[in-house]
Amino acid sequence: MSGPASPFPPGDSGGRPALTFRLGALQVAAPILGGLLAGTALANVLLVVTAGEYMTSGELRSCLSAVVIASLVVPALPSRYGVELTHNWLVVLGNRRREIAWRDIIGLEIRKTAGIRTVIVVVADGRRILLRAPMSLLDRRFDHKAQILTDWWVAGRGGPYGG
């Protein structure tokens, strides 16, 4: 995606999404698969420490089968988390849909947790909203997407000084 020349596409009516960021399949699957593998390893270590025995091959096969099945199923699930950019709103998609007027956003911040960068939206009423997308995990274009969000915010609030 090479961002639009101006922050808003030509002829944008203001209501329909002009740009959408969603998590990719691998961005959804990687944390889940890592957790399953780490859980399997931890269960095996705890079994050795407490009972002095390793998982049987059947138990280990069951755990690894769950990882394999999850690696096939999770990426196929549609990502409902993301953001839509419209002329007037930043729309946060997830369990529910939240519309935040660009003029109500007082700042965008990049937060880094465990090496993964995400965008935080700071709203005039004091709320700090974590955006699930874009996210830097397995996305080399995170910086570009964060810049697009910033450009839309600046344009949506009326220019670099909010006027």
Overview of the structural elements:
It is elongated, with a radius of gyration of 21 Å. The longest helix has 27 residues, at about 25-50. The chain starts with 18 loop residues before the first strand and ends in a 7-residue tail after the last helix. With about 160 residues, it is of the alpha+beta class. The protein has helices spanning about 25-50, 55-75, 140-155, and strands at about 20, 80-85, 90-95, 100, 105-115, 115-125, 130-135. It is about 35% helix and about 25% strand. Mean pLDDT is about 85; it is low at about 1-5. The strands form 2 sheets. It has a 4-stranded antiparallel beta sheet with strand order 1-2-3-4, with helices on one face.
- Strand ordering within the main sheet: 1-2-3-4
How many β-strands, per DSSP?
A: 7
The backbone outline, from C-alpha atoms, is elongated
Q: What summary fits the major beta sheet? A: 4 strands, antiparallel
The span between the termini is: 29 Å
Mean pLDDT: 84
* Gyration radius, rounded: 21 Å
Short description:
The chain is α+β, with helices and mostly antiparallel strands and 163 residues long. It is 36% helix and 26% strand.
Give short descriptive properties of this protein:
3-stranded antiparallel sheet, 163 residues, alpha+beta, 3 helices
List the SSEs and their pairings.
Elements: E1 19-22, H1 25-51, H2 57-73, E2 82-85, E3 89-93, E4 98-101, E5 105-113, E6 116-123, E7 128-135, H3 142-156
Antiparallel strand pairs: 1-2, 2-3, 3-4, 5-6, 6-7
